[in-house]
Every structure is written in C-alpha cells, then in structure tokens.
Design the sequence.
C-alpha cells in the first residue's frame, strides 16, 4: 500500500504528483491554487486569498519560531502576487502536554510580526490532539489581501532577467544544522521575514517591469524556476557565480552533499523582470533590509525549452531539474 | 587571478585535438558528480569519453547486504543508524525508506559516532550501524567501534560492508571487458592509502593514472595531464592532489583500520566476489559484529532482471544506455542503486544532463 513519505512534502516532484493525482482528484480541480494566492473577483473588488499550514522541528530556531514563520509565510504569499495583505486567520493544533510558556512566546511573536507587516489576525480556532498524535504545535494561517496596484503576473519572454533578493539557503541550513546538532554552523540564522513592504516598494517604482515574483520556500530557487519553465517554450539560465550564497551555507552544503539552490528560504523572493527594469529593481531591493544582497542571477532564454540550467564560471552547463524528493546527506 | 587561470586552462582543454577516441575512467562517484556539477564535463574536447567506475559505495553494495540489515532490524526490533545515502537504496524486497514508513526505527546520522550516542540513549534496544563505504569512511567506523568498547556499550553493532577500492579496479582491468586508456584516481581514498597502492595500474596493466582532487581546477588539470600521459606513452601514476595526498597516505588512519578490521574477500555489485576487497571485523571485536552477533534468517536475495547497474559499474555502458534509464528507473522510483545515491552515475546523469 502506498504510504505518505517525507518526500511528499518536499516541494518537489513527489509533492506535485500527490497534489495532481490525489488532492485535485478528490477535491476537484478548482480547489487547488498552484500560484501563491487565489485571486477572487468579488462584486466591486479583486482580492487575493491564501492558506498555509506550518510544521517545523524545532519550533524555536535562530532567526525566528513557528509563529513568526506562520505570519510571514502567509503575508509573503499574498505580497508576491502584488496584493496588500490585510487580514489573517490563525488555527492552532496543539498536542496535549505542550507548555503554555512556549505557546505564549509563539503567539507573541505572531503579534509582533503581524504588527510589523501591517496585518490583523481577526479569526482563529484551537484544537487539542492527544499526546503522540501531533508534534507540539501546528499552525494554519489563511490570509486576505487587496490589490491597490496591478497583479504582478505577466507573460514571461526570452530576454527577461532573473533576480533573487538575497543569499539563498540560510533558513534550510539553519534548521538542518539544529536538527542534526551540527556544531559548526556558527552565527547562521533563518532569513524568516515579511517581505510585503519590500515588494510594495519595488512594485510602486518598477511595477510595469515585473513579470513574476515568488518566495523561494520549500525546494528553493530551483523549484520556483522549474515551475516557471514547465511546458514553456523558454528555459531559465542561471549564472552560478552570480547566485548569492553565504560561505557557511556553502560549506555545510558541500560537506553534506546538498545543493543550496534547492534549500528552503523563508525571506527571499525570485523575480522575473523585463531586461531594462532589472537593474533598477535590484537597486531598489538593496535599499530594504531584506534585500541588501539582491542580484541579477540569470535570464530567460530559448536554449533548452522547458528546462532550468546552470552555467558554471568556466562556461560549462548542467541541468537544474525539479527536486525529486527531500535532499539527504551523503556517505563520503 | 585564479579564476582567469582556470578559464584559460578550460580553453586549453577544449582545444585539445584527439585523434583516436580516448576513454578515461573516473573511478570515484564523487568525481562523476563533480564533473557534471562544475560544468567540466560539458567542456571536454570531442573524442574524449568519461566512463564511470565502481567508486560509489552505495552502488557496489549488493542487495544481500541490505536484506540482512533489514532482517536483523525486524527480528531484533533494532534501531538502524545510517548515512542518508542508503535510505532510498532498493533492497531485494523493500528499502530502508519503505521500512521506515512501515514503522521501522531508522535514524539518519552524520557521523558513525552518532550511532553510539543513540545506543546510550536507548539501552533497551540494539542499534545497528549500516557500515558501508571505502577507505575514507573505514577509519571513523573503526574509531566508533573502539569508542563503543571504551564506553562499555553492549547494545551496538556494525553490519560491516566496508570495501577497499584498488582490488576492485584490479578485478575490472583483469576482466579486460572494456577499453580504458587511463584513470582519474579517487582523491579522498588516496588521502588515506597514498599513491603506491595504485601503482599496479601502470605496472601490471600498462595504463596511466592521475590522482585528482574535486575542484574545477583539479578536474581540468587531471584530465589534461592524463591526456598528455596517454599521448606520450608516459605509463605511470601521478599525484595531482598533492595538497591532500601523501605518497605513503595517512599512516595513523591505516593503523586504525588495521587495528579493527581484517582484509577479506567481498562481493561487489557487477564484479562478484573480489579477493581481498573487503573489510571484516576482527574476531576480538566480534561482539560488535552484527553478522556474527545475530543469527537471523535472511530471505534469498534477488536483483531486478532489467537493472544494468552491474554493467555500468564495470564501465561497460553509460547510464543513458541502460534500457531502464528514465524509463521506469528514476530517483523517485529507483530500480538500481546507481539512480539513488548522490554519487551514483545514473543519478548524476539524470539530475545534471537528461536531454
């Protein structure tokens, strides 16, 4: 009998198969929005609506906690569409025996993040499951945003530039180091942050040049780019040298045989922009504390339609396919 | 400066004229992956073919090994401690990943020493270390056994599947099934054993070899040197990784290996039983030897009939020549181990250049 495996949550091919073959099959095809938010036409207005569930071990980590993640993640899913996030819901699933001190800290950090992002948590629910039936705390947040400016989705074309808003892999490697008690991770911390104000800045100044934005969470940069190119007549070419990655992250990745381009981020966006707008967008991103190391990392071309590939500094090329399942550390 | 130099070297390599087809074997699975990852594979001159060798520990481990590990864990309700690479490798009937989803306690470790920490925390259960690897991992597995003895840990054992690489290359050349003009010799293994154990390649079989590191520049200079040696009939073994490899190897590491393990015959996927190519735990440490400690019934092992991992590891075919490659065998549903491990040749071709 087929069982749920860790890879079904990795943001890669196994997860896509489950969404297509199980969830859409049972709930109906309109039930699943594959973009970051659904865009709904209500009489008189257009809104963005999204939901996400958060489960992470450990629940507290350098740079954040599950509560901060639950606010930021949903805020970012609305913001990358071009929507201004307004309201969140908060559903808690708590395991029997979970301590109130931790719950208090998590809720406090949710409130701080919500205030900072300018959103209100307006509805919620709490369920308790017996000990052993959950993992301390799971949080679901749904969010609603409105469109003041245009929807940040436009047809991607050959010649468009690919931008990232900063160093990749910080969140995933921080968590992996903690989980495995790696003692060499130094001062590394999660990049977990709400990006709505940064996105609003660039969309006000350069909105017409932006074709696409997505936060590069599970599956990292590689997964975002593979979604963009799937079944399309263009490919995405990444200049490996141009991709910002912290030395510590690269070091741990090398050691464990992981590729930082597949590692999760919680405070980084990938932007596809018109060629002429790219430099201005990068400069604007760099004025924000979450975008200091923003860079143009590649472009859309027609060399290998439907695929993402990397050019190394010597000019050699290799594919960057959709992650099959979770990355595992190697033997030697 | 270094960057410009490497780009110049790349151009030199690309411009090489190769009159007759040259076939170079990179023995090591990490080299296979690095050739792709650095882009060097894409910059090789026409007429030069890289053949993947038997240097991925997970790939050469026969199904019978995992079958035994799973049988012991089931029979003794043991905790399995393993490096991540082994998790998805198919055994005859399942895999550790499948067993884990059925409830087996399988823990991924980053160092073998983690396994004895797990044993100390779970004293009512046996902890079985999946001990698979070449000369590079054997010292840490030996140290782990010695540490377990020092701490008086009784609920810990190794399922020893450790292997030695030079005898496998010897067996491959001795079989004389495939044209190989020269070898890129594993850098990590050579840091432990040194250069001299590879001399037989030149002395016995008349083929040149270069010990190479893993960075872009190491791979490029390794290939350029080897092409020169082949052209000039310079039949010798050269050390192109002098920053890490000493001629005599790492004497301390070899002493640790020899203090815990004996050399024995070992079964390799594709090569069969290769004399003197494996390690077994010395009799005085047999209480840590899961193979001796537990007498369990192991179901007869079987291989998938279409899987050509064995031929691949002997250099007979390249991954895309296997009829199952991307047609039934892929990392999400691997039929053979070469598609699973990050060092497996099929996995490297699938990930980095599937056209």
Sequence:
């Amino acid at each position: 009998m087929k069982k749920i495996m860790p890879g079904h949550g990795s943001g890669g091919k196994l997860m896509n198969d489950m969404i297509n073959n199980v969830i859409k099959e049972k709930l109906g095809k309109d039930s699943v929005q594959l973009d970051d938010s659904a865009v709904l036409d209500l009489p008189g207005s257009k809104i963005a609506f999204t939901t996400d569930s958060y489960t992470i071990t450990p629940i507290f980590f350098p740079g954040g906690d599950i509560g901060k993640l639950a606010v930021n993640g949903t805020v970012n899913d609305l913001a990358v569409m071009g929507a201004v996030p307004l309201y969140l819901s908060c559903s808690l699933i708590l395991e029997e025996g979970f301590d109130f001190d931790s719950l208090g800290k998590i809720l406090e950090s949710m409130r701080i993040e919500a205030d900072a992002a300018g959103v209100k948590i307006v509805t919620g629910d709490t369920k308790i499951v017996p000990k052993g039936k959950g993992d301390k705390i799971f949080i679901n947040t749904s969010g609603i945003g409105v469109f003041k400016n245009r929807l940040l989705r436009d047809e991607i074309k050959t010649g468009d530039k690919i931008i990232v808003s900063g160093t990749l892999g910080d969140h995933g490697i921080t968590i992996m180091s903690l989980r495995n008690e790696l003692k060499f991770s130094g001062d590394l911390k999660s990049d977990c942050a709400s990006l709505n104000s940064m996105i609003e800045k660039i969309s006000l100044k350069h909105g017409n040049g932006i074709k696409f934005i997505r936060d590069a969470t599970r599956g990292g940069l590689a997964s975002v780019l593979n979604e963009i190119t799937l079944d399309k007549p263009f490919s995405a070419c990444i200049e490996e040298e141009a991709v910002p990655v912290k030395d510590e992250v690269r070091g741990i990745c090398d050691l464990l045989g992981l590729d930082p381009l597949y590692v999760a981020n919680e405070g980084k966006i990938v932007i596809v922009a018109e060629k002429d707008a790219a430099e201005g967008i990068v400069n604007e991103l760099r004025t924000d504390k979450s975008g200091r190391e923003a860079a143009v990392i590649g472009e859309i071309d027609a060399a290998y339609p439907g695929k993402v590939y990397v050019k190394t500094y010597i000019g050699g090329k290799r594919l960057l396919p959709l992650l099959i399942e979770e990355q595992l550390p190697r033997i030697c | 400066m270094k960057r410009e130099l490497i780009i110049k070297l790349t151009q030199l390599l690309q411009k090489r004229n190769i009159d007759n087809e040259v076939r170079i074997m990179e023995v090591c699975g990490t080299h296979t992956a690095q050739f792709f990852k650095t882009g060097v594979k894409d910059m090789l001159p026409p007429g030069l073919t890289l053949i993947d060798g038997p240097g991925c520990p997970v790939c050469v481990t026969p199904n019978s090994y995992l079958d035994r590990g799973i049988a012991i864990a089931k029979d003794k309700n043991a905790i399995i401690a393993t490096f991540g690479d082994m998790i998805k490798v198919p055994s005859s009937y399942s895999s550790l990943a499948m067993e884990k989803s059925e409830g087996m306690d399988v823990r991924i470790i980053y160092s073998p020493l983690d396994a004895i920490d797990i044993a100390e925390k779970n004293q009512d259960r046996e902890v079985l270390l999946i001990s698979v690897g070449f000369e590079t991992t054997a010292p840490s597995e030996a140290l782990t056994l010695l540490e377990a003895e020092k701490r008086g840990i009784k609920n810990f054992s190794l399922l020893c599947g450790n292997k030695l690489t030079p005898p496998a290359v010897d067996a491959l050349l001795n079989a004389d099934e495939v044209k190989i003009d020269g070898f890129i010799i594993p850098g990590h293994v050579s840091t432990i054993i040194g250069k001299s154990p590879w001399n037989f390649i030149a002395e016995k079989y008349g083929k040149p070899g270069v010990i190479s590191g893993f960075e872009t520049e190491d791979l490029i200079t390794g290939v350029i040197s080897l092409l020169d040696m082949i052209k000039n009939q310079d039949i010798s073994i050269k050390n192109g990784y002098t920053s890490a490899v000493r001629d005599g190897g790492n004497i301390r590491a070899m002493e640790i290996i020899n203090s815990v393990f004996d050399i024995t015959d070992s079964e390799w996927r594709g090569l069969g039983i290769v004399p003197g190519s494996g390690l077994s735990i010395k009799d005085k440490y047999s209480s840590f030897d899961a193979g001796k400690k537990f007498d369990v019934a192991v179901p007869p092992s079987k291989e998938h009939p279409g899987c050509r991992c064995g031929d691949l590891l002997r250099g007979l075919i390249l991954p895309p020549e296997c009829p199952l490659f991307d047609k039934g065998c892929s990392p999400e549903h691997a039929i053979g181990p070469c598609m699973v491990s990050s060092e497996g040749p099929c996995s490297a071709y699938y990930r980095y250049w599937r056209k």
